[in-house]
Amino acid sequence: MTRLRIALAQLNPTVGDLEGNVAKILVAYDQAEAAGCDIVAFGELAITGYPPEDLVLKSGFVADNLAALGRVAARTGRCVAVVGYVASDRDLYNAAAVCVGGEVVGTYRKRVLPNYAVFDEARYFTPGDASDPYELYVIGGVKVGISICEDVWNPTGPLAEQAAGGAELNININGSPYHAAKVSERERMLATRAADASCALVYVNQICGQDELVFDGGSMVFDAGGTLTARAALLKEELLITDVEIDPVYRKRLLDPRGHRTDEPMRLVKISDAPIPHDDVLAGPIAAMPDLDAELYNAIVLGTGDYVRKNGFTDVVIGLSGGIDSTLVACIAVDALGADHVHGISMPSRYSSDHSKSDAADLARKLGIDFRTIAIEPAFTAYLEMTAEAFVGKPADLTEENLQSRIRGTTLMALSNKFGWMVLTTGNKSEMAVGYFTLYGDSVGGYAVIKDVLKTRVYDLCRYYNRRVGSEVISDSVINKPPSAELRPDQRDDQSLPPYDVLDPILRLYVEEDRTAAEIIELGHDEAIVRRVARLVDLNEYKRRQCPPGVRVSPKAFGKDRRLPITNGYRG
User: Fold this and answer.
1) pLDDT tens string 93-109
2) Would you state the CATH architecture of domain 2-270?
3) What does DSSP assign to residue 509?
4) DSSP 511
5) For this structure, is 44 an active site residue?
6) Strands 220-222 and 228-231: what pairing?
7) Which DSSP string do the residues of 324-357 spell out, in sequence order?
8) What is the number of other CB atoms lying within 10 angstroms of the CB of residue 409?
9) DSSP alpha helices (H): ranges in 120-181?
10) Of 37, 99, 149, 462, which is the active-site residue?
11) Is the pLDDT of residue 132 over 80?
12) Model confidence at 265, in pLDDT bands (50, 70, 90)?
């Protein structure tokens, strides 16, 4: 049995910040080298940050990324570094460099390029193929293969082929984005791949918010039997150092009735015959996983904080209505940025209830955030007077309701301009889906924190928040009041929409699972409601296109995930 000491560098890169990413990589490398590691693995495209999108179409950016890789390689000593970068050789490749002794000694090119959901790697990269010989690296006497993210999801892909060619350990570097409940799915898949290939597997994932995407880390190690032996924390930067025991597995492979064989060329690159000796054994750790509410909440906090900070903002401003959505957004913002950097603005109109105004003030006091009241009644009255002649003979309707929302949006943007605060919008996925928001009103802002969270989950997260902090920061009056935009007397959401416990299951099927209205009706949902909801979702695509980005936490979010034409005659 051979034991290798391996570091899994679960870092938070910034797309395009080559200098900053190199600095993070080198700090982690030095720590791994000082700990006597044989190998340290970094995330997919760690040099550029993932996903770099159209940056890779700039030849200067690709050249700078290669120079940055050179700086990393030059700093390497005995510990082998596996580093993701963009390779250039008459085309572009999503690649991993194997660096040791001050130089790059090998390169692996990603073979399975995802081109679904939020991925469009076929737009940018050429896949490695059978014309590229597999290189197995002999590190500490162990034959080590390299793979990148999607490669390991393919059961007959590079991991199986490399193992059949003699690999005893595979280093799989990743930019695997988060969605709710994906963590357990990923772990089951990786355990199966390791066991099927009879090959120990090291999975390294980045952790960061990148525009709409959140990358959750959760880096893991599996032995050749598929048993989880180490796991890094979810949604936190970490350098996980663990010893990986490599058992002889050739006999199991020879007797395997599936008979894995490979015609792939295998080239051995010898780096070291023996692992670095250690008196101690580092086992694990296996970080505990949070429950689904905590996981979801923490992912939104990470995505929000990274988006705000990485785009050069320190403070945010939120329209605090006293409703459930703005309440949750305020709590998330405080956890993401700190109470001193969050500003809540109450903007009452003639239709705002006393309890909504007091609920907003009470929340601000409990969170310890800056709170101001700017009444919109003077502006609303001025608009009504200004348009009175143009609207003569027309009864009050949605126009006057939307005016109030647009005044509030303009007020928040004025504060943003004056003080340099980013506006966080507060609309949820249920409202976004059916167009229950005002374009250029409550939709304006820099980031839509809960745009991928259905309304029923908003309530779940508010209850979770109170459990998290151990007190009733979010009062029962907020959680239990009927949801309302308060843009006309005695208004309630259920006057315009089906109840959310009816609406949300239909939206899950129609939006996230791409079911047609007819299929949803066949599942037992009310036909009239389904037809109405589907029509609302389709008609409001134009409004969603004009909304800010927000954290993706479901299998299919509005934005990069769901790309339907605005001009669309299909009704299913």
Assistant:
1) 999 999 999 999 999 99
2) 4-Layer Sandwich (3.60)
3) I
4) I
5) yes
6) antiparallel
7) HHHHHHHHHHHHHH-GGGEEEEE---TT--HHHH
8) 22
9) 150-153, 158-164
10) 149
11) no
12) low
Strand partners, 471: none
CA distance 499 to 495: 9
Residues 121/122/126/127 CA torsion (nearest 10 deg): 80
CA 501 to chain centre: 26
pLDDT at 58: 93
Q: Region 315-321: what's the mean pLDDT?
A: 96
Q: Which CATH superfamily is domain 292-544 in?
A: HUPs (3.40.50.620)
DSSP state of 276: P
**104-108, 237-241, 254-258, 359-363, range with the lowest pLDDT:** 254-258
Phi, psi (rounded to 5 degrees) for 471: -155, 170
Structure tokens at 164: 């059949």
Total-model pTM: 0.92
Task: Give the active site residue among 24, 37, 44, 543.
Answer: 44
Question: What whole-number distance in Å separates Cα of residue 104 and Cα of residue 271?
Answer: 12
What value does the mean pLDDT of the chain take? Answer: 91
Range(s) for CATH 3.60.110.10 in the chain? 2-270
Catalytic one of 110, 143, 357, 429: 110
Active site residue 79: no
Interval 421-460: pLDDT, tens: 999 999 999 999 999 999 999 899 999 999 999 999 999 9
Helix (H) or strand (E) holding 104: strand 103-109
